[in-house]
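#structure-requests
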Amino acid sequence: MERVIFATGNAGKMREIRSIMADTYPEILSMKEAGIQTDIAEDGKTYEENALIKARAVAAAAEGGLVLADDSGLEIDFLGKEPGVYSARYLGEDTPYSVKNAELIRRLEGVPEEERTARFVCAIAAVLPDGRELTVRAAIEGRIGYEEKGGNGFGYDPIFYVPEMGKTTAELTEEEKNLVSHRGKALRLMREELKKL
């Protein structure tokens, strides 16, 4: 079984990825674990473009194998789908998510629940050893809460409320989150696409 490199350094993402893909790909390495250090300018206009930029850059530095990358974001309908593809860079890349979350809640002050609709979107790109490329996209629909809740997850999870679960994504167990999350859905879609090849 070939090794897989996932173009991220995010430990939370790597946990989710390994949990979902382990049965198909027992060895999944982060860029750091694969010894790849490269500055990647994510200047695409869509999640798919950014995911492909990352996957291509890591594939160029890797010595063979399958390279996967994702780009994801939070889209809040009331804010014109902000922060969207700029989710990681919203208010600055090094700004703590507690500050970003507080600012989004502030911007939605007084907005009724039915207008607080939002979604997490995830695109995953694959660069195969023979140079072929694939992308998939998935989403989870929800609403923006009124305060941070939950200690699991990362990023915007504490303010993203999933009505059918009655919890934020930061209150879900790892197993629950992997079943319903945008990344979980996209990883399973990619796994199925790769199986067809």
